[in-house]
Write a structure and sequence with these properties.
Low-confidence stretches: 436-442
Number of domains: 2
CATH class of the largest domain: Alpha Beta
Structural class: alpha/beta
Mean pLDDT: 89
Helix content: 25-40%
Number of strands: 16
CATH architecture of the largest domain: 3-Layer(bba) Sandwich
Strand order of the largest sheet: 5-2-1-6-16-15
Number of helices: 12
Length: about 450
């Protein structure tokens, strides 16, 4: 069978097939053809160290990660092995992660990695997991197969600075409310500095949007200039919110604060949390150096913006991730309208399991609706949605509990129910999720 796309979803699908003894050709077009966001030819290359987000069961994405671990996810094995400090979040060293995932997939005897761009969809059993940056030729082939046009939005990347260039005489290390130790660098702004910064963001030169493209931003990755356009105080209640932070130099909470998060294992690089942008490179350097502590910042990566493509999944996908009317074609990853690396990898895991079952002549799987994975898949495949937009894993997608609870207690109860239902489901479908010894990541 064929897997197209060597990102997290494609690698996860290949791993699951290999666990079942199924051979697959995994096509990855890089480095033959590059993308607007990727810089290497590694499988599973990430553009953000905190791609896996919160690690606790108080969040649905934390629950989804735990579900994936119990289902034998290779992505979670490598992520856990390449973790870097980030408080309550699971952040990874991006280079080590991509290297580890690449080595793991390359070591699978039943998987052949083909460095080639496919421009047509194969006729046999296929998992398409080319992600939000699907090449124009393959995108057109998919559009023809589905008989529908794509939807799309824009995803933005935050800048990265060297830690040595941050003025620690102004900035300080701490996590919000003291949770997670000193994992973040905090750059404080007083009222005057904040509004001067917001004005500069609004007035800065931006990269022009082409006339034929509609600009639709996903709320979880909104460029800072778009947030600032909504009102001068928006950033202070968004990525620059000072809540839970006290400046040790004066014992007061700053009017606003920019947080920097570790981006590599050695702690040499930090990214500006939530500072996705489409300002020009020159303007980014000028405006971001207005932030106290970053006056002499050395930028190793500046923010950028790229088009992300996804399909109208509720109209064309079954809960098994099979295409309606073409059931030997499965789709996975951000292409199906899930937002986030964790969610993308999870759909790749499910697509791999279902492709194996289709080859065995048995019915495909659909996880319980009470699980994070099951609720997410149900959301993106529920028929009849209008104005479909990408979705993260969140507790709002899960069915309500039988007993009324609120806050943290409610979230933990939802997680407890999800993991119990997942265990029962695994038993019912005779799937343990345990990796074989030869597959275990060291």
């Amino acid at each position: 069978m064929t897997i197209i796309g060597g990102g997290l979803a494609g690698c996860e699908a290949a791993w699951q097939l290999a666990r079942g003894g199924i051979g697959a050709d995994l096509y990855e077009m890089r480095p033959v053809r590059g993308t607007e966001a990727h810089q290497t030819d590694r499988l599973g290359e990430l553009v953000c160290s905190n791609s896996f987000r919160n690690a606790t069961l108080e969040t649905a994405v934390g629950l989804l990660k735990e579900e994936m671990r119990r289902l034998g996810s290779i992505v979670m094995q490598v992520a856990d092995a390449t973790r870097v400090p980030a408080g309550a979040c699971l952040a990874v060293d991006r280079l080590h992660f991509a290297d580890g995932l690449t080595r793991a997939v390359e070591a699978l005897a039943s998987v052949r990695i083909v460095r080639e761009e496919l421009t047509e969809l194969p006729l046999g059993l296929t998992i398409l997991a080319t992600g939000p940056l699907t090449s124009p030729a393959l995108s057109q082939a998919l559009q023809t197969a589905l008989g529908r046009t794509h939807l799309y939005f824009y995803d933005a990347i935050a800048p990265i600075v060297t830690v040595d260039s941050v003025d620690m005489g102004v900035a300080w290390k701490a996590s919000r409310y003291g949770k997670g130790g000193e994992d973040y660098i905090n750059c404080p702004l007083d009222r005057e500095q904040y509004y001067r910064f917001v004005a500069a963001v609004g007035g800065a030169e931006k990269v022009a949007t082409r006339d034929f493209e509609r600009c639709i931003y996903f709320e979880g990755c909104m460029p800072i200039e778009e947030m600032a356009r909504r009102g001068p105080d928006t950033l202070a209640f968004g990525p620059m919110r000072p809540v839970g932070l006290v400046n040790p130099r004066d014992g007061k909470r700053p009017y606003a604060c920019v947080q920097l998060r570790q981006d590599d294992a050695e702690g040499r690089l930090f990214n500006l949390v939530g500072f996705q942008t489409k300002m020009t490179y020159a303007e980014q350097r000028r405006v971001f150096r207005m932030i106290p502590g970053l006056e002499q910042a050395e930028f190793v990566r500046l923010g950028s913006l790229h088009r992300n493509t996804f399909i109208n999944s509720p109209a064309v996908l079954l809960p098994s991730l099979q295409v309606i009317g073409r059931k030997r074609l499965l789709l996975a990853g951000q292409l199906v309208g899930v937002e986030g690396y964790v969610e993308s990898a999870a759909t790749g895991l499910l697509a791999g399991l279902n492709a194996e079952r289709l080859l065995q002549g048995v019915a495909p799987l659909s996880p319980p609706r009470t699980t994070a994975l099951g609720s997410l898949v149900a959301y993106v495949t529920q028929r009849g949605k209008k104005g479909f937009q990408p979705m993260n894993a969140n507790y709002g997608l899960l069915p309500p509990l039988a007993r009324p609870l609120r806050g943290r207690d409610k979230k933990l109860a939802l997680a407890e129910r999800a993991l119990a239902d997942l265990a029962r489901w695994q038993t019912s479908v005779q799937f343990t999720g345990e990796p074989t010894p030869s597959q275990t990541v060291a």
